[in-house]
Specification:
152 residues, mainly alpha
Length: 152
């Protein structure tokens, strides 16, 4: 085999490796990622609440936040993979011990976020406000059943 052919094969192998799926992230990385996603959800919730309370002049951004909530709600289940139930997670063991109940809670969250997003797009702000209240109830449900209580 010539040097040129060997170099081409090596380059092709390296290129193929760059297109393969990355290795599974470590569990600590999963917890860090989950916390970032949850912080993003909290940020959108706070911004939406501020808009509905007229605490800001940024009402035109409501759709951005409701779309963000809908998108994040759709990935929520994936940020609780098996093996990420240790360390400073804040999630209760019930997330992994009661997977059907947790899946139902996440589905309710995703459905409520989608409803808020579609209602906001309709322009009916009274209905959107009610949908926001429904979304907040799904957040409360998860926090009460699947999240450690924070000391205040």
């Amino acid at each position: 085999m010539t040097f040129k052919r060997s170099a081409l094969i090596a380059c092709a192998a390296l290129a193929a490796m760059s297109f393969t799926a990355p290795a599974m992230a470590d569990e600590a990385g999963e917890i860090k990622y989950r916390k970032a996603v949850m912080k993003s959800i909290g940020g959108h919730m706070g911004a939406i609440a501020g808009i509905f309370k007229a605490e800001t002049g940024n009402q035109t951004n409501l759709g951005v936040h409701t779309q963000g909530m809908a998108d994040l709600a759709n990935i929520t289940a994936s940020v609780f993979p098996a093996g990420s139930d240790f360390g400073e997670t804040g999630a209760l063991p019930a997330v992994w011990d009661k997977p059907d109940e947790f899946a139902m809670a996440v589905k309710m969250f995703a459905d409520a976020a989608a409803k808020l997003n579609s209602t906001t797009k309709s322009g009916d702000m009274a209905a959107a406000g009610a949908a926001f209240g429904g979304l907040a109830k799904t957040c409360k449900n998860c926090h009460e059943n699947f999240r450690e209580k924070k000391n205040k």
